[in-house]
Amino acid sequence: MIKNRKAAEEFILKYIDKLIPGSKNTGFYKMIFSNMSDQEFDTYINDLESGKRFLILTAPNFSDKSLSVERNLNIAKELKHDFFQKLWIEGEGDNATYLTPIKYMVVDVPVRRPSQILIKKISVPKNTKTVDALTGQVTGESKGAKISYPELQVTAAMGLDNCMIELMKYRGGDQRGGIALTSMLSKLGTANLKVLSNYASGVESTKTLKTFLTAAHLRSTL
């Protein structure tokens, strides 16, 4: 059990107010604490310590009371917490694992899964018999799901460059390269981007856009 509930409440309220001085967050927590029994408060504090629950702040857009990086760093210094840590970087291939000479900010941030990766959003072409002449992509009854810009950003952030080349080029409308990809997968069960590059003919949608621009007497670098 918490030995001094009043001191615990005052500590939380003090730093909640310091994070966004004058905001409604302090009053919000006062209301929550006033409706908690000692047992509920004890459970709440234990959940905070274990990481099961977190203190939450409300910071509306365009409010004159907002968070400040400088203020947060000062509060962290006061609480003897260091946001900056040296990182161990795992080496690839013959490169050795090393510790970074400088510190980087390390914080927990919320992550929201894009709706596009949900199973119900996934569709895979049954075959490649029907192809759109303008885009070079599979269409009609067997049309598959497209890769969205948010998905592409996530893929790029993860450093999956080869995946982007496969999805945006060989599965995205490069007809000769796509045929070579399908053939390699059918015969070998695997595919190699270096080999596929010998069969690449360019994405059809890019050629189509260039044709449209030319027809409109617009020069492009496509």
Description:
- This protein is elongated.
- By secondary structure, it is mainly α.
- 44% of the residues lie in helices and 4% in strands.
- It has 2 domains: 5-59 and 66-78, no CATH class; 115-215, no CATH class.
- The mean pLDDT is 85.
- A hairpin with an 8-residue loop joins strand 2 (88-89) and strand 3 (98-99).
- Helix 1 (5-19) runs antiparallel to helix 2 (25-34).
Task: Kindly summarize this structure in a few lines.
This protein is mostly helical and 222 residues long.
Q: What is the molecular shape?
A: elongated
**Number of domain modules:** 2
Please work out how many helical segments DSSP would assign. Answer: 9
Beta-strand level of the residues, as a percent range?
Answer: under 5%
The main sheet comes to: 2 strands, antiparallel
Write down the secondary-structure element order.
Answer: HHHHEEEEHHHHH
Query: Alpha-carbon distance between the termini?
Result: 69 Å
Across the major sheet, the strand order is 1-4
Strand segment tally = 4
Fraction in helix: 40-55%
- Unreliable stretches covering 5 or more consecutive residues: none
Mean pLDDT: 85
Radius of gyration, in Å, reads 28 Å
| Secondary-structure-derived class | mainly alpha
Topology:
Elements: H1 5-19, H2 25-34, H3 38-50, H4 69-78, E1 84-85, E2 88-89, E3 98-99, E4 104-105, H5 149-157, H6 161-170, H7 175-188, H8 193-196, H9 204-215
Antiparallel strand pairs: 1-4, 2-3
Key attributes of the depicted protein:
elongated; single chain; 2 domains
